[in-house]
Amino acid sequence: MTAAVGAPGPVGIPPAVTEETEPFWEAAREGRLLVERCPACAAESFPPYGICRACRGRPVEFVEITGPGRIYSFTVNHQRWLPGLEVPYAIVLVEFPGHPGVRVAGRLRGCAPQDVAIGAEVEIGFEPGPGGFAVPSFVAVPSPPGPPGPPGFTAAEGAA
Ligand SMILES: [Zn+2]
Q1: How far is the CA of 99 from the centre of ligand 1 (A)?
Q2: Nearest 5°: phi and psi at 146?
Q3: What is the pTM of this model?
Q4: What's the Rg (C-alpha) of the chain?
């Protein structure tokens, strides 16, 4: 195996790369987020699967998604699953305007776990992962000043 990135060795299990997921991991190395798009019905989906989840069509093609996205849901991990894993950290599930059907999970950086909020804007980032792979993660976008809502809810949901 060729030398991986020079960053400190991240803990975890490297992804199992398949024919269907190889383009995704190749693009990830370049900091680009690819999702699958079905040429037949235009449905987009993630993670790569090699077949359209909507119409079962194949082959599918890849399209690049750019940020920002919005936090659809999140969880905070406090468990040190692996030696060397720094906790706590937030894992966010992110959706993107104009890309229904696509939600991408990843670690959130640039925001304390207790400050993560649904609906908050995030940029796509990648960070070194196990085995020299770049893994998707997200970087919090500072929100404009405004009245704070209850933690974990957007103002709209809080008012419902
Ligand atoms: Zn389709």
Answers
A1: 14
A2: -175, 175
A3: 0.81
A4: 17
Cα–ligand 1 centroid distance for 47 (angstroms): 15
* Positions of the chain with pLDDT under 50: 1-8, 155-160
CA 91 to ligand 1 center in whole angstroms: 29
Distance 36 CA to ligand 1 centre (A): 10
Note the pLDDT of residue 82.
85
Ligand 1 center from residue 75 Cα (angstroms):
31
Q: Which pLDDT value is given to residue 159?
A: 43
